[in-house]
Amino acid sequence: MSLSQGDRLGRYEVLGPIGAGGMGEVWRARDTELGRGVAVKVLPEEVASEPRRVERFRREARALAALSHPNLLEVHDVGSSNGLDYVVTELLEGDSLRAAIPPSGLPWQKVVEIGAAVAEGLAAAHGKGIIHRDLKPENLFLTADGRVKILDFGLATIDDDLGVDGDSPTVTEDGAVLGTAGYMSPEQLRGQPATAQSDIFSLGCVMYEMASGMRAFSGNTGAELYAAILKEEPPQLSSSGATVPVDLERIVHRCLEKRPEARSQSAADLAHSLKSLGSSPSAPVMATPSAVASVGRHRHRPWTVPAVVVGVILAAITSWWALSERGTQEAAVEDTTTLDPNRIAVVPFTNRTGDASLDNLAALTADRLTQGLADLDEIEVAPASVVAASAAGVDSSQMAGVVATGTDSGLVLTGVWDSVGPGLELQATLEDAQRGSVIRAFDPIPATNEAPQEAIATLRDWTLMAVQDHLHPILAWGAGDRFPKYEAYQAYRRFFEAMETGPSESAAGHALQARQLDPEFARPLLHVGAAWIPGISSFELHDMMIDFFRPVHEMNLTPRQQLIVEMIDARMDGRWQEAYRLSMLELERDPSNSWARKDAIKNAIFTHRPLEVIELFEAMKEDSLTPGRYRYFTARWVLWALHFTGRHEEELILARRVLAEEFGETAGESARANELRALAALGRIDEIDAILTEVLLEPDSFLADSQEMSAVVYELRAHGFAEEAQDVAERSLSLYASGDDTTTLDRCDPCEAYVLMAAERFSEARTVFEKLLTDVPDNRDWCMQLGICAAVLGDRETALEMERRIEEIGPAMGPTDVPYGTRGAGEIMQASIAAQLGDHDRAIRLIQQGIAAGYGYNHWIHANPAFEPLWDHPEFQEILRPKG
Fold it and tell me: C-alpha distances in angstroms, 54 versus 45, 80, 139, 252?
């Protein structure tokens, strides 16, 4: 049935249409019994037969019927007539907020007034267990007499207490996300349940648009818009040209925090803050583009590089390596704020107990916290006298911003003492004044009137940990809901300092101590598991790390910690695609955390996603606590990505910066090989000759496996410089042959064999490998090399025997059953022999099986000379093609 003027729905006479939308048609009508004008909402005829649309319509009716508040649309009646479900509401005169927002935005006083009214309406809805989920300017109505009304609860979730299905998901059965693009919270976009904080995020988007006339988040496509909400920060309101108070800017940007827990904790609190701002008798401090710190929006910085155009990646490289010379300071960003991010102001605590005798306790609390923070070398504490002067007479809703400005402090700690029953309760909040966001709202700490010092000591420890977590997000990676014992946290931090040169007994000792001091402290275990790197050459180290990580599965973890455990498990099992998916999900939740970004880079490179590796690295701001060894490994994976995408000039620049860090040998691979691979790809033979001559004749060189020479020869060949590769190999072999007792040749027999292989002197190399296997018959690598030599020399029987031996030996290359990083390696080794035997299809199948079994993609697949017969094979070309 379609409505028209004159129709009746029960006692309501339809007078004419008002408007229509996706959730229904609205008609002006007259209540014939009460003689008043009303609005009647029905579903349009074309969708009235869709059960899900009907259910949403009925959901809104039940939601509105459960509410009564001046800022919510009042429901008069619900009913059904002639097959039509309808809702009768008050008739509003006015227009939507959308029509009221000019291109330049509304005056800030109007933004505060409307925002406070909407927040109060949301508080009433949230108090009844109702989440709106679709707040936007079109669903907010400004009446002719100046009231604000929230409309359209058609997508609301409703608590079971109201007798309505409360399991309404954020994502429909067909995968559509419920809500409106541009106003949905990050958690809604991820398909997670909407909460009161989700509505607060949407209201933040609306207030931002009211103040500036521009959307907080934008994009040319839905995908770009979603990515902006999930990953980007909106520009500060003041930078848009809007004239707003500093505290309004802080309130709006706090609503727009990515993490729900960092937003205002209730709509009622938000309403109070807005009303306090609007009713303040003193003139507000107005925001300017320089008054409040940038909120992470500068993803790309302008860099100029003479002589070579290397793109954005060089900016990331330069700022990253600069950290090694700047201690705990962060990389420079475009930020003219005067607030010091490494300075904290501890505001005198408030005595709300009503007992004046406890005023001294409030002062003592701030003093004890100040003393504790002074022990941290990396942070400066604002003088108590300056803080007290800045805080005098300031309303609590504006305290953080005013004190921060008055003391030049990027961090502000505030707190109160309250009476709870017969005892006391200590509460505190740590805020980032630059971002206008809450770092940590500490759980209330109970105390007794007789012994409040224990609560103060607890808050001191919590504050010390929260500040360090904030200054070094790497420490906060994997954090749960609770703080550990502070002694355990101190041992945990020492673990990072001891890891500078890589896993060691000292580092392991600190991690073990942290776990012993607090058995439920999961972060040390998670970091050890995440630090595991493919190709660990020490089996003792492998066993130590896996034994330390394993107990985490028995711990009481948060859902986020469990996700990290699943990611690490997937990586250890060789399920790289799953590890990549999980690490990207974790990175979306915490995009500023460099350790989460490293995990994503590690998983992306081994799933052969080089472009994503470069993009992830480009946006990384390294934490100064990151051990040098792990900065090296991240750089190495970026080098691979640049190599796989043909960006060899940039690869060479980064490789030389890595050498400047002087990491030397790392996990069996020479750092010098990175430079030589780039030079080989560029065909710069003279530079290669100079480096190899220096390296191979260096008495103290630790090149037992001739990584430099192998990298050069094989990369030259892979990039079409076959003659040059052969010439380099022959000259390198002559350098080896002319060595004396101090040269690499005499220190390690396998080196000679690898050089002979590179020079294609397979008969001589075969003799060496046969001798080596006589002493160590279960070395799979030597079996592979002998098999390749035999295949090239036409000895198919020996080649196939080596293939069988590799399979029989299996993955057990040491005390553990499956050393990390070796999954699928046997198949790759067998494929090398098969390719040289001419069994190309079988070789392709073996490579595919190796990758499926967990062999992470790396430069050896790209440059392995044994695979040269496969280079023109379409399926091999597909293996080499970057994914993602």
Answer: 11, 12, 19, 35
Q: From CA 302, how far away is CA 333, in angstroms rounded?
A: 10
Q: Distance from first CA to last CA of the chain, Å, rounded? A: 50
Confidence bin at 533 (pLDDT 50/70/90): low
CA distance 509 to 512: 5
C-alpha angle 357-360-364 in degrees, rounded to nearest 5? 150
Cα–Cα distance, 45 to 30 (Å, whole number):
22
Query: Which two structure tokens, joined as six digits, stand for 66?
Result: 């459960």
Half-sphere exposure of 419 (CA within 13 A, CB side): 10
CA distance 328 to 78: 63
- What dihedral do alpha carbons 651, 656, 659, 665 form, nearest 10°? 40
Q: Which residue has the tokens 């609560």?
A: 455
Token pair for residue 537? 């050459």
List pLDDT tens digits, range 622-673. Answer: 888 888 778 888 888 999 999 999 999 999 999 888 887 655 444 445 677 8
With b for 16 or more beta-carbon neighbours within 10 A and e for fewer, the 96-118 pattern comes to bbeebbeeebbebebbbbbbbbb
Whole-number Å distance between alpha carbons of 38 and 31: 7
Instruction: Extract the tokens encoding 454.
Output: 């224990």
**Torsion angles phi and psi, residue 423, rounded to 5:** -120, -160
873 burial level (CB within 10 Å; 0-12, 13-18, 19+)? middle
Residue type, 253: H
Task: Give one DSSP letter per residue of 762-810, joined into a string.
Answer: HHHHHHHHHHHHHH-TT-HHHHHHHHHHHHHTT-HHHHHHHHHHHHHHT
Nearest CA to 48 out of 82, 75, 16 is that of 82
The three state secondary structure string of 129-185 is CEECCCCCHHHEEEECCCCEEECCCCCCEECHHHCCCCCCCCECCCCCECCCCCCCC
Whether the pLDDT of residue 221 is over 80: the answer is no
- Three-state SS at 476: helix
Q: Which residues contact 754 (CB under 8 A, 6 or more apart)?
A: 705, 706, 709, 710, 765, 785
Model-level pTM? 0.62
Q: Which helix (H) or strand (E) holds 519?
A: none
- Mind listing the pLDDT tens digit for each residue in 344-400? 999 999 898 888 888 889 889 999 999 999 989 899 999 988 988 888 887 776 788
Give burial (CB, 10 Å; 0-12/13-18/19+) of 662: exposed
Q: In what order do the strands lie in the sheet with 36-42?
A: 8-9, 12-21, 24-31, 36-42, 84-90, 75-81
Q: What does the alpha-carbon distance between residue 256 and residue 587 come to, in Å, rounded to a whole number? A: 18
Helices (H) and strands (E) in the chain, counts: 37, 20
Q: How many whole angstroms from its chain centre is CA 299? A: 14
Catalytic residues, which ones? 134
Q: How many CA atoms lie within 13 A of 816 on its CB side?
A: 18
10 Å CB burial of residue 567 (0-12, 13-18, 19+) is buried
576-589 and 594-606 are packed helices; what angle lies between their axes, rounded to 10 degrees?
160
CA distances from 394 to 116, 282, 390, 400, 401 (A): 21, 10, 8, 10, 10
In whole angstroms, what is the distance from residue 371 CA to residue 362 CA?
15
d(CA 417, CA 412): 17
Q: Which letter does DSSP use for residue 357 in this model?
A: G
- Please give the pLDDT value at position 251: 92
